[in-house]
Every structure is written in C-alpha cells, then in structure tokens.
C-alpha cells in the first residue's frame, strides 16, 4: 500500500464542487492506497469514512502562507511520499514526487479579462506561476479532458506524463416538482460571476429576446449586473442540489455560454434530464456533447439570440446518455494512475 499525501483544503468545504468531486473520485477508486489529507481546516467528515483515509490539520489559516510555508515545512519530514496538488497551485520550493492536477487554463484568460490588480487578476497570476512551475519540473500531470490535455502538451517541454481522468458525475436524486418554485416558462443557465463564465453577454443577449420567458441563472449574483436589463432574469445562489435538479427537469432549454472551461459538469447534468442544450462553440463542449447540442460563438450577441430563438422553436434535440460512458472511462483512467505513483 502506497502512502499518498493530498493538499485537501478543497475537501474542507461543506459543499463539494467540481474540483472536490474530481479528487473524491480519485480517492474512492483507489481503495488499496493510503491517503493522508492535509489541510489548515477540518476536513468534511463525509470523506473520513474509510480505513485508508486519515487527515492532519496544521499550519497557517492564510491560504498562501499555508501553501508556501506550512505545507513545504511538513513535507520536509516526508520526502519519500507522493503528493497530489488538486488546486492549480503548489509550493514553489517543493521538489519531491508530485501529481499535479490541471483542470483548465482559465487563469490565463482571466488575466486578460480581469482588471489590473483585482483579486481575480492576482489569483490568476499566482495560478499561472504554479502551473508552469509544475510543467517545467518533473511531475505527473492529471487533467480532465482531451481539450485541456492537448493544451498542456503545448507547454510540456519536459515531456511529463499526462493522464486524462474525467470529472465525476453523480446521478441526481429528485424531490418535489420544480413548478412549485417557478410557474412560468424559463431558460436555465448554471454559471457564475467570473469573467470566463460570460454571464454578462448572455444577459445582454437575452434582454433582446422578445418572448414571454424568464432566464434563471444559478450561481451568479445580481449585484454585478445592475447596469444591465435584468427585469426578466432570476438569480439563484446557494440552492440545494435537489432544487437545481428540478430546475433542470422543467426548463425550456439549458444554455452554457462560457468562453473557456476545463470540462462542463452542468452539461452532463442537463443532459441527464434531456434538456435542449445550447452551448459555446469550444473544443471541450464538443467533446462532451458531440452532435447533441446547438453551438454558438460566445462572443457574438447575435448568434446567442438566434440560437435561443431556434431552440425555442425546435425542441426535438435531445442528449444521449453519455454520462455513463464518462463515469466508466474515469474508473479505468484512475486505475492506470497506479503505474505512475
């Protein structure tokens, strides 16, 4: 049994998002390995339910100080261990055996889209430095799609090993009918306020759609869009999963306008409920959806409007049940990781 340390701060949250779910999938599919979860906060107890998983909480509360001081100091006394870094970041002065997970290159896009010296800009600069530090030193790299894999290889000068492990997709558990929440027709988007989510462009385009229909955006805050016409937009944040799933089930169509993504779990969720899918014409969305979506240029307001009209008038497109193949592929991919540990 190999001992594997993990920078597990992402597992200290009460709600697991894409990065955490991907990491959990790796842990669950390697039951014969010993995992020690390292964090500056208490790990969610749901994770610590197996004899091969333990946790150590130590060091600074500050994200940067823990990563650059507390963690490398701890690892000085555990030099033979393999360490997994799942957050696009790592200690600059760690030279041991490592598995570095690169979900996407959104941080490069955010440097261009964010205002100089804002929090997003600074975080993106930091992630850029860490990712290229991993690529330009001896590392095993994990990524989540062929799209990101191809991009990694453009920078992979040391020819580090790169393994694709798809994101985890959980079959939804349904509860009450979503019509109790919204009794009028609506278009659904699961998005956010980050620049790459392109939510502003979607709202601008939707404001010009002349139909008696609402736009429901889950995950974005309305305060960032008060300069736009949001009279027909409903913003929902922090809703439980069963409400989100019911929103998928009852929407007229689902739209995902991101400029860039590493994968796209919301597309798989929407596909599970046979939503009509509209999404950006980017490589990774073609990888997920194939011919089962309507694609648009995310930088073209006119294309977004035309696709919405087309989808509202033609709801015959449905998504095949691809989520099962992604899940099975992920299990096989994770097992192949054993050769590299």
Question: What does this protein structure show overall?
Answer:
It contains eleven helices and 13 strands. With 341 residues, the chain is an alpha/beta fold. It has two domains: 3-169 and 326-340, Glycogen Phosphorylase B (Rossmann fold, 3-Layer(aba) Sandwich); 178-322, 3-Layer(aba) Sandwich (Rossmann fold), CATH 3.40.50. It has a seven-stranded parallel beta sheet, sandwiched between helices. A six-stranded parallel beta sheet has the order 10-9-8-11-12-13, with helices on both faces. Helix 9 (283-289) links the parallel strand 12 (277-280) and strand 13. Helix 3 runs antiparallel to helix 4 (119-135). The longest helix is centred in the middle third of the chain and has 17 residues, at 119-135.
Can you tag this structure with a few keywords?
341 residues; alpha/beta; Rossmann fold; 2 domains; 11 helices; 13 strands
Outline the secondary-structure elements.
Layout (H helix, E strand, L loop, with lengths): L2 E5 L10 H11 L5 E6 L13 E5 L5 H13 L6 E4 L12 E5 L3 H8 L5 H17 L4 E4 L2 H10 L5 E4 L21 E5 L8 H8 L7 E5 L14 E4 L4 H10 L2 E4 L8 H8 L4 E4 L2 H7 L4 E3 L4 H13 L9 H14 L5
Parallel strand pairs: 1-2, 1-4, 2-3, 4-5, 5-6, 6-7, 8-9, 8-11, 9-10, 11-12, 12-13
Helix pairs in contact: 3-4, 6-10
């Amino acid at each position: 049994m190999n001992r594997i340390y993990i920078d597990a701060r992402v597992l200290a949250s009460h709600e697991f998002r894409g990065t955490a779910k991907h990491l959990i999938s790796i842990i669950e599919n390697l039951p014969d390995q010993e995992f020690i979860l390292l964090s500056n906060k208490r790990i969610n107890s749901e994770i610590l339910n197996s004899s091969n998983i333990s946790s150590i909480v130590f060091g600074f509360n500050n994200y940067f100080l823990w990563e650059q001081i507390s963690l490398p100091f701890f690892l000085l006394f555990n030099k033979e261990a393999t360490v997994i870094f799942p957050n696009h970041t790592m200690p600059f002065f760690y030279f041991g055996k490592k598995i570095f997970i690169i979900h996407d290159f959104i941080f490069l896009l955010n440097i261009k889209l964010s205002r100089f010296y804002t929090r997003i800009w600074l975080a993106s600069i930091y992630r850029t430095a860490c990712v290229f530090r991993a690529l330009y030193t001896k590392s095993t790299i994990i990524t989540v799609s062929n799209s990101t894999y191809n991009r990694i290889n453009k920078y992979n000068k040391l020819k580090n090993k790169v393994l694709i492990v798809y994101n985890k997709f959980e079959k939804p558990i349904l509860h009450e009918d979503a019509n109790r929440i919204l009794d009028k027709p609506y278009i659904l988007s699961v998005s956010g306020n980050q620049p790459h989510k392109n939510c502003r462009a979607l709202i601008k385009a939707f404001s010009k759609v002349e139909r008696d229909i609402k736009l429901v955006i889950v995950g974005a805050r309305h305060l960032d869009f008060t300069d736009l016409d949001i009279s027909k937009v409903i913003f929902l944040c922090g809703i439980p999963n069963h409400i989100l799933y019911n929103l998928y089930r009852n929407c007229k169509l689902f739209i995902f306008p991101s400029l860039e993504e590493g994968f796209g779990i919301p597309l798989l969720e929407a596909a599970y409920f046979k939503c009509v899918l509209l999404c950006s014409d980017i490589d990774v969305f073609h990888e997920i959806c194939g011919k089962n979506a309507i694609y648009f240029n995310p930088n073209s307001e006119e294309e977004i409007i035309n696709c919405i009209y087309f989808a509202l008038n033609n709801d015959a497109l449905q998504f095949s049940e691809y989520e099962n193949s992604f899940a099975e592929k992920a299990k096989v991919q994770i097992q192949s990781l054993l050769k590299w540990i």
